[in-house]
Amino acid sequence: MGDLKNGTYKVYTRGVDKGGITGTGKSATFHIDKAKPVFTKFVIKESTNTNTYSDSEPVLEYSVKDDNFYCVQVSVNNGSYKSLSDDKESEDEEISGLVSGQANTIKVRAVDKAGNVSDVKSFTYYYDEDAPVISASINPNTNSEKMDNSEKKPVLKYTISDKTLKSYEVELNGEKINVNGSSGEVELKNVEEGENNISITATDKAGNGEEQELTYYRDTVTPEAGYVKVIPKTGFFNTSNKLPIVYWSGFSDDNLSEIQIKINDGEYKTLGLDSSGEGKLQGVDFSKDGKYTLTVRAVDKGGMFQKR
């Protein structure tokens, strides 16, 4: 039939015998398509590069010219081609299957019903959907009820992990402190008495951000001594058969933990939790007649104390 051009053809066939008698004819239709599809529009909605990643997968706007169009296919990172869409044109076709935190190689092609394949459209897309990961701790470990009374400065240990890390910052009480590298240890030199707030922030090239906050509590100030009175008042010539009541006041500390009492050389026990108050002692502590020495002290949350 020769070299047929692109188009639709109809073929008729019939049988003829030696007597010239013809049989019933049959027809068949077939198509010739040697032309490959052509992208008349191909636009990636968001531009990326080595310094600017995206946290969204790429969205493609395209249009294909082909009378026998079949589908648009995509290959990600040299994987096998998979169908992306069976529409000849689209304004928002999202490409999935990318690897986060790296440059992704993407190839797009159009295929028609005859198996003709368009020229491949290739591009690199820089993609990162994951926020930085921050791990940090302070030595010594403190809380609002257990403060640090050491003269040594606390040490911050930190690690910031992200494949496309762009920037990071460490602040102590709102002031930036210098750190070397995205991981390491740094001495916190300008800590204050009481509560100290440490903030670590990190951002990657896609704009994903993460923040971690830590708190360090410090108390190196000794509580101010207060006033203590014991009733009934006793002496060498003035003993008593009543259990003593201890009154105290004026013990001052911003981080006061408790008021303690020690009888003779015994262990300190909790007498109260406020800077002023009263407490009646127990008979079990005065099982024998004689002289008893009472020592009262204030203890703060850093373990510092002042006694009377």
Which characteristics define this entry?
308 residues; 4-stranded antiparallel beta sheet; 49% strand
Model description:
This protein has 308 residues and is mainly beta. It contains no helices and 23 strands. It has strands at 7-13, 26-32, 38-44, 59-65, 69-76, 82-85, 89-94, 102-112, 121-127, 133-139, 155-161, 165-172, 175-177, 183-187, 194-204, 209-218, 227-231, 245-249, 256-263, 269-272, 277-280, 294-300, 305-307. The strands form 7 sheets. A 4-stranded antiparallel β-sheet has the order 6-5-8-9, with no helix packed on it. A 4-stranded antiparallel β-sheet has the order 13-12-15-16, with no helix packed on it. The radius of gyration is 42 Å and the shape is rod-shaped. The N and C termini lie far apart (120 Å). The model has no long low-confidence stretch (mean pLDDT 90).
Reconstruct the topology from this structure.
Elements lengths: L6 E7 L12 E7 L5 E7 L14 E7 L3 E8 L5 E4 L3 E6 L7 E11 L8 E7 L5 E7 L15 E7 L3 E8 L2 E3 L5 E5 L6 E11 L4 E10 L8 E5 L13 E5 L6 E8 L5 E4 L4 E4 L13 E7 L4 E3 L1
Antiparallel strand pairs: 1-2, 3-4, 4-7, 5-6, 5-8, 8-9, 10-11, 11-14, 12-13, 12-15, 15-16, 17-18, 18-21, 19-20, 19-22, 22-23
How are helices and strands ordered from N to C? Answer: EEEEEEEEEEEEEEEEEEEEEEE
Shape: rod-shaped
- The number of distinct helices, counting runs of at least 4 residues, comes to 0
Assign a percent range to the helix content: under 10%
Q: From the helix content, strand content and strand pairing, which structural class follows?
A: mainly beta
Count of DSSP strands: 23
* Poorly predicted tracts of residues: none
CA radius of gyration:
42 Å
Please describe the biggest sheet, giving its number of strands, its sense, and whether it closes into a barrel: 4 strands, antiparallel
**β-sheet strand percentage:** over 45%
Mean residue pLDDT: 90
Terminus-to-terminus distance:
120 Å
Strands ordered across the widest β-sheet:
6-5-8-9
